[in-house]
Specification:
Rossmann fold, single chain, 25% strand, 20 helices, 3 domains, 6-stranded mixed β-sheet, 537 residues, alpha/beta
Amino acid sequence: MTLLSVRDLQLSIHRAPILHGLDFDIRAGEVFGLVGESGSGKSMTALALMQLLPYGGTSTGRAAMGGENLLALSERRMCALRGREIGMIFQEPMTALNPVKTIGDQVAETLMIHGAASRRAALEVARERLDRVGLFEERFPLDRFPHELSGGQRQRVCIAMAVALRPKLLIADEPTTALDVTTQAQILDLLKGLVEEEDMALMLITHDLAVVAGMADHVAVMQAGRIVEAGPTEALFRTRAHDYTRRLFAASDHAPARQVTRTEKPLLEVAGAERAYTLPRTRPFGPQSHFRAVKGVSFTLHEGESLGLVGESGCGKSTLARAILGLDVLQGGTIRLGGEAVRAGHHMHRTMRAKMQAVFQDPYGSFNPRWTVARLVAEPLHLLHEPPADPAARVASALEEVGLVPADARKYIHEFSGGQRQRIAIARALILRPRLIVLDEAVSALDVRVRAQVLDLLAELQSRHGLAYLFISHDLAVVRAITDRVLVMQAGEIVEEGETGRVFDAPAHAYTKTLVAASPRLPPDWREDDAARQTVV
């Protein structure tokens, strides 16, 4: 039975066309996947259905659900439907949650606003919903705040809020993009279980084709505001009638052409690294406890080598990266770069800082939005002993190296797409000609085609300049494509290391096996039609 029928959905923002005549149906109890690149209109489609469009947005067409056209309803009526009939999970849970309200109050709020329960009854339902999504009372009481939870736990709270009133349709907009593979697998299993148990429909918006392959019954592929192909998931992915679908499919497992630049000369040497944090006392005058985030980690990164560092959120990857960059002080062990000791804080000389740079996960968050690109890219130049005679020329050269043009230096960061912002972040890291670049989840938020372009760029720059990369990521496919060796980290310790292909193809440690098993992948036999198509041609 059709739950939602969308016909000729069109959307414009300040008269600029965004969506062009979308047609699709979602049946009760099914998972409907909506895939495409960033900017293709996936999220705008969901916001149009929810009537949560930005200022200046106007939608036309018909979205029939329960005998009503969602696009034509009043705000009062939509308020009655949101949460009760249609729930939505947003991509970034920290911005979707109220930081000054407890998780119990936020889940209960949905029921109270709709008059479905008193405060006491609503809190009881909130407890049951949080238990259902895996946040059990003994570890996650109702009085916990969002900042006390990990990213995956916050996403579970958002799911509990969205399903508190058992809606008929659940819209999930990139619900697992920033999560590690095991947490992602848990969230996807949770969503699938909710669909089966509650008999609700799920509209899953994502750029990850492997996730859609494992979840969706039907899929629609979006490009530039249009659905270019739609149908049952397996049939569509096997045939891939549209050229854009074929390009997305090819980009999903893209491996850049890399030249071997590794030497046997050690560049970064970490020996017995220890990092612990003091935890708050649980009671007045109680004993002081500590959390060991990094426990005796040792490894060597060679000149020109790409080294991957993988593990779940909270395993200590980023803490270790901060210590390597001289941003966190170690309690034990040593870190040496090019034979010199890395000392965090004011004792670290600027010439040492100039030898290593970082590219972070969120380029927009790591830039000052009030500065021009020229100032952003030139920011590290103060670390040089002698500043360049012509900084503008140095900035222009760095931008050209990452595929941008010198004229982009006059723009601001909000004028660029996500992939372009990451290129600017790489340009800023390159401008000092460092020996080591630490990439912390640098491509995790990018769609498959932009990610492929950035990986190609990183491989080309490494070949040209002999750079060494420490590549931190939860995406095992990306790590396989860009690294020579990999370290697997669990609970602050390196549990396995070796050549990337060997570790992922034949993992020895149980934890590595868990990571590999949890990583979503497209079924290999779905590519059999590629060979048949080439044979016919």
